[in-house]
Write a structure and sequence with these properties.
Blueprint: E1 11-16, H1 19-30, E2 33-38, E3 41-45, E4 52-57, E5 79-82, H2 86-95, E6 99-100, E7 109-113, E8 119-123
Parallel strand pairs: 1-4, 5-8
Antiparallel strand pairs: 2-3, 3-4, 6-7, 7-8
Length: 124
């Protein structure tokens, strides 16, 4: 077997119907900074360093369904966001544009939807 070279995940790229709009939502939600910005691509970085989140406009974007049923667009990934106060985090997330999902599978997690329909989890 070959020796594994150094591989470092530097970020995650999230598809959206409007990259700048979705990036602005996550900038407000997380308090991260815009590190790079182009008309169809925006990179956010956490203030303390680390992997960032990038947002890319996709012309054929299909909003995922949560929970997905047969024939629905499946979510491809979701963010897990740890919080110290679930109620306060949920109130803040909805104040900046998130929507609480109708289906909530766990008591200590709140599944929210971002403006593009991507589910993300707030958890204790």
């Amino acid at each position: 077997m070959m020796e594994r070279p150094r591989l470092t995940v530097s970020g995650t790229n999230i598809g959206a119907p409007d990259a700048p709009e979705l990036a602005e939502f996550y900038r407000r939600l997380l308090g991260w900074e815009v590190a790079e910005s182009e008309p169809d691509w925006v990179l956010l970085k956490p203030p303390g360093g680390g992997a960032g989140l990038a947002f890319q406009t996709e012309k054929g974007y299909a909003r995922p369904a949560w929970p997905a049923g047969p024939g629905d667009q499946q979510m491809m990934m979701h963010l897990e966001i740890r919080v110290d106060d679930l109620d306060a985090a949920l109130a803040y997330a909805t104040s900046v544009g998130a929507v609480l999902a109708d289906y909530q599978p766990q008591d200590d997690v709140r599944v929210c939807l971002d403006p593009a329909g991507h589910p993300f989890c707030l958890w204790l």
